[in-house]
Amino acid sequence: MNIFKRLFRIGQAEIHAAVDKMEDPIKMTEQGLRELRTDLAEATEAYAKVKALAIRTENDQLHRQQESKSYAEKAILIMQKAQSGQVDLGKAEELAREALSLYKRYSVESEELGLQAVALQQSSREMQRNAEILKENMEKWEKELRTLKTRLNVSNATVQVNKQLAHVDSNGIIGMLERMKSKVEDQEALSKAYGEISRDKNSKKDELDSLLKNDSFSIEKDLQAIKDKLGIS
């Protein structure tokens, strides 16, 4: 049974050690937010590039559309010149065919570019929406992180205070205060006693001095009486 208890204690120690080695969740969250800020910057840059490409594609589509329209008008114009005899009919038909070919090509390109522009605009809107969602979430998470850090600091301080209070022996402190109080009272009593002894000594000394002084005065009186009786001046 003892060996099983020992193995259980070893397992507990390994678990606690593993927990102690775990990374700080606050630091992990901060690192995650830093990575998200990088992702947001990259997403914003990608959105700007796609938006720019969409604008450029729209401009190209408009240009192809104008070119297509222009060559359609040129085909009609060259046949009108042939009709008026300004250009040989055979030559006019050849040039008109070339103009119509270019009209068709630019028309097809215009349609393709139009579809590409629509797809790019849709992609750019989705990227913008995702970037805005990421930005909103980051602001919310950063706010929550600041709140949690504040709560953690308060919690750590509270734990430290409570930990200190848990180690305080109230009875022991009260006992020490009582002993100090008793010692102070003893010192005060001793001081008072010395004061009374000093006052008693001074009182007896004064009494002795008074008695001695009275005896001396009496002796002088007796001596003077003897001198007067004998007639000694």
TrEMBL record:
The keyword Coiled coil applies. Keywords: Coiled coil. The keyword Iron-sulfur does not apply. Pfam families: PspA_IM30 (PF04012). InterPro entries: PspA_VIPP1 (IPR007157). Residues 26-53, 117-158 form a coiled coil. It comes from the Bacteria. Belongs to the PspA/Vipp/IM30 family. This is PspA/IM30 family protein. It comes from Dawidia cretensis. The lineage of its organism: Bacteria, Pseudomonadati, Bacteroidota, Cytophagia, Cytophagales.
